């Protein structure tokens, strides 16, 4: 990132007498533009210190409604949320805070029933009772299958999901999904004493087997297709560093991949893959700014080539503004197809052209323009954002207001 774009662009917070942040000021500067724009976001609180209104930098001072408004109950739980994007939502809680009824701006209404342990047993929607039904096991259930207190069956609009056995750590061992046509689909799982998945059989009879190292990291994976007798390797081996990051992997297709990380911050530095017969498949090197944004990717596996008076080297660069929003990206893509009547012709893989893509945002962080510049293919995509919300649609300069 251009260091000048970040110079003297602090984040400023204003606090009230209760220590609550009432304003946040972000300093926006784009590379190459010395001007700084102050983007002010605002929060309002009630007497108890709960947020009742939130305004972002775009709507503050220009819209009659805040981005988010909240109404609370006497115990401090939110009863109503009113968002300029999602609309309003109203919740009627019970004595224990469980949501008994919910409404939203689209006219939907949900009613939820709970048992004595505050577990959901039924959900009704828009006047239709028991749209979703949940059945739990009581103390008389089979202890050998670890069913007691567990959710045994769930009935919904798609059919039913029956779980008849559980592991000691809680995950289900056998599940049967039945749709309205009555055909059941059963899957099985096997877990280790620590809860790690060891083997899984899906409804089609395909089996997946996983093995782990002493630290609990995945080391080996195999697949047995239904109707066959030979296990196929998916993952042959994997190695990890002390930070639990993968550093080496041999896949079942004999592709060997390696990863290296910066010891100062553990960010990914290089990523490469090669095959013993096909050679190098991928060799990427990553560069970052101080906050972790990728500023450059160098593709060392890409052979530089020349096309249409351009040198294409496969490297990509990224530029950000002072709010760390991506404003420019470079790369390469396929050249235009040949202008030949008839059936489409496959493109030449050697025909690559460099491009530059720029992005523009409004003060609320909404993307309002994407400009793609490349020899033989320029286009601009614009978004029209609602003045009083963050909703947007595709739009062109000469189009009527949406």
UniProtKB/TrEMBL annotation:
<dbReference type="InterPro" id="IPR050708">
    <property type="entry name" value="T6SS_VgrG/RHS"/>
</dbReference>
<feature type="region of interest" description="Disordered">
    <location>
        <begin position="330"/>
        <end position="349"/>
    </location>
</feature>
<feature type="compositionally biased region" description="Pro residues">
    <location>
        <begin position="335"/>
        <end position="347"/>
    </location>
</feature>
<protein>
    <submittedName>
        <fullName>Toxin</fullName>
    </submittedName>
</protein>
């Amino acid at each position: 990132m251009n260091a000048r774009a970040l110079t003297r662009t602090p984040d400023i917070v204003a606090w009230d007498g209760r220590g609550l942040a009432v304003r946040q000021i972000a300093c926006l500067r784009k590379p190459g533009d010395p001007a700084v724009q102050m983007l002010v976001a605002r929060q309002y609180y009630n007497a108890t210190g709960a947020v009742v209104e939130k305004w972002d930098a775009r709507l503050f001072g220009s819209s009659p409604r805040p981005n988010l408004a909240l109404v609370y109950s006497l115990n401090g739980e939110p009863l109503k949320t009113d968002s300029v994007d999602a609309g309003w939502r109203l919740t009627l809680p019970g004595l224990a805070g469980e949501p008994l009824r919910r409404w939203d701006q689209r006219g939907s209404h949900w009613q939820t029933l709970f048992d004595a342990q505050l577990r959901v047993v039924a959900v009704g929607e828009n006047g239709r009772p028991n749209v979703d039904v949940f059945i739990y096991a009581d103390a008389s259930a089979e202890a050998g299958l670890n069913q007691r207190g567990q959710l045994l069956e769930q009935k919904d609009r798609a059919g039913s999901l029956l779980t008849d056995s559980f592991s000691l750590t809680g995950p289900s061992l056998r599940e049967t999904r039945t749709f309205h046509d009555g055909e059941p689909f059963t899957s099985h799982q096997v877990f280790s004493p620590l809860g790690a998945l060891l083997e899984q059989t899906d409804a089609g009879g395909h089996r997946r087997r996983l093995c782990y190292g002493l630290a609990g990291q995945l080391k080996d994976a195999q697949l047995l297709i239904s109707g066959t007798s030979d296990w196929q390797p998916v993952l042959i081996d994997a190695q990890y560093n002390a930070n639990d990051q993968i550093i080496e992997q041999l896949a079942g297709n004999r592709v060997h991949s390696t990863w290296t990380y910066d010891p100062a911050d553990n960010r990914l530095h290089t990523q490469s893959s090669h095959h013993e017969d096909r050679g190098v498949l991928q060799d990427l090197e990553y560069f970052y700014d101080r906050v972790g944004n990728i500023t450059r990717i160098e593709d060392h596996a890409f052979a530089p080539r020349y096309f249409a008076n351009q040198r294409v080297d496969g490297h990509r660069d990224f530029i950000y503004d002072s709010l760390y929003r991506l404003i420019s990206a470079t790369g390469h893509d396929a050249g235009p197809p040949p202008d030949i009547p008839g059936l489409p012709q496959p493109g030449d893989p050697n025909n690559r052209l460099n491009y530059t893509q720029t992005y523009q945002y409004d003060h609320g962080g909404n993307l309002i323009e994407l400009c793609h510049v490349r020899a033989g293919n320029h286009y601009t995509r614009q978004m029209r954002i609602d003045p009083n919300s963050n909703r947007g649609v595709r739009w062109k300069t000469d189009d009527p207001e949406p």
